[in-house]
Structure formats: structure tokens, C-alpha cells
Amino acid sequence: ETGVTQTPRHLVMGMTNKKSLKCEQHLGHNAMYWYKQSAKKPLELMFVYNFKEQTENNSVPSRFSPECPNSSHLFLHLHTLQPEDSALYLCASSQEIQGVDEQYFGPGTRLTVT
Amino acid sequence: QKEVEQNSGPLSVPEGAIASLNCTYSDRGSQSFFWYRQYSGKSPELIMSIYSNGDKEDGRFTAQLNKASQYVSLLIRDSQPSDSATYLCAVTNQGGKLIFGQGTELSVKP
């Protein structure tokens, strides 16, 4: 396991539910990311936070709502999801230094929307 | 054209052979290049990063970068069955965004 933790590891939710994914990094990094990984597709960047400020929202539907209360914690709030949102959701962190951006991933949350 | 392209495989090599994984990218201004390994059901694990033209070696792994040809590769020497995984190429584009390829599945047969 890396210095990035995610909970829960598995989540099954109905389309009318509201749930939250949590990510915590213990690496002292200043940037955190949410990615979506669907079967047979490249990793899709969803959100980027740098020093707690959102710097990227990659045209993600509003049913996904990120929150970054501090540089160590990142949440993804989910509501009224669709079955096609079922995927592996990955959190990553990095220490952004110009020209160097090694991202380290958490174990992921396997989400199933029924 | 995809920003980062990899052959999806599967690439099958016998144990002890050299596995060669290739990646091309479209943004000529890209500066940072990474290889991640992802076992089935697990998250990506960073195994190599390379920032300048040439070769970079780390144990059985060698990353090769050719910016003129917009090409980056990963060689795995003395391949082991435990190397069987999907290998993701990732490139930081001029906008500073990390773009991933779809990954190459590697199978090392005993």
C-alpha cells in the first residue's frame, strides 16, 4: 500500500442514494487528484486540487462534487448517479514542482451503481 | 489522434526474455514521462519516470525517451511471471496535465 488511503474500498449504491468517497495522503504533497477508470478505457482525470484550490474540473457532471478541506484530505460526494458511473475511482497525490509531477495513487474505490 | 497511444496487447513473452513496451505521444512540448504498472484489481503503481532523452535504468527496468520521435519505451529484462500486469504510459503535456495511455497488457509465461 502507498501513502495514499481511500475509503471505502467497495461501494454499491442505488441511483437515488448520496454517498461520499474519502481520500487521505500521508506524503506531505500539495496536489490531489480524482480519476475515473472504466473497463478498457484510459484513466480519466476528473478534478485537480493544488494547495486546496480546485485548478481543474474536467467537464465532470455535477452529480460528482469534490471537496478539499486541506492539503491532506479529498472527498468526492456522489448523488443521483447513473449505472454508467460504475467504475474504479482513484485518488492520487503529488508534490508539484515545475517539470516534475510524479503522482502516487491510492488503492481506489470500486463503485457499482444499481 | 490520441494524445498518448499504446498497443493494448496482450503482449506475451516467455519467462527470462526481454519485454518491450512502447508508447507514442502527440504533444511535442511534453516534458515528463512515466510508466505505471497496474495489477488486475489494483491501482497504478509508479515504476519509472524519465525527463530527458536517452536511457534510464532501474534494476531490471529501462526507460527510453526520444523526444524528436515523440516516443517512450519500457524494457523489462529477465521477465518474470510476477511482471504480468497492465503497463500504463503517462505523459505530462504542455498544459501540465498528466495524460494516460490505455495501457499494454503484458503476460509472462513460465
Protein model, in words:
The complex is a heterodimer of chains A (114) and B (110). Chain A is 0% helix and 56% strand. Chain A is an all-beta fold. The radius of gyration of chain A is 13 Å and the shape is globular. Chain A starts with a strand and ends with a strand. The relative contact order of chain A is 0.34. In chain B, the strands form 2 sheets. In chain B, strands 2, 4, 5, 9, 10 and 11 form a 6-stranded mixed β-sheet that branches. Chain B has a 5-stranded antiparallel β-sheet with strand order 1-3-8-7-6, with no helix packed on it. The radius of gyration of chain B is 13 Å and the shape is globular. Chain B has 110 residues and is mostly beta strands. Chain B is built from no helices and 11 strands. Chain A binds chain B through residues 2, 40-43, 45, 56, 88, 90, 99-108, and chain B through 4, 31-32, 34, 36, 42-46, 49, 51, 88, 90, 92, 96-103.
Which overall shape of chain A is indicated by the principal axes computed on the Cα atoms?
globular
Structural class of chain B: mainly beta
- Number of alpha- plus pi-helical segments of chain B: 0
Q: How many E strands of chain B?
A: 11
Largest sheet of chain B: 6 strands, mixed
Helix and strand element order of chain A:
EEEEEEEEEEE
Estimated share of beta-strand residues of chain A:
over 45%
Structural Rg of chain A: 13 Å
**Helix share bin of chain B:** under 10%
Global mean pLDDT of chain B: 94
- Figure out the total of helices of chain A: 0
Query: Low-confidence segments of chain A, ≥5 residues, pLDDT <50?
Result: none
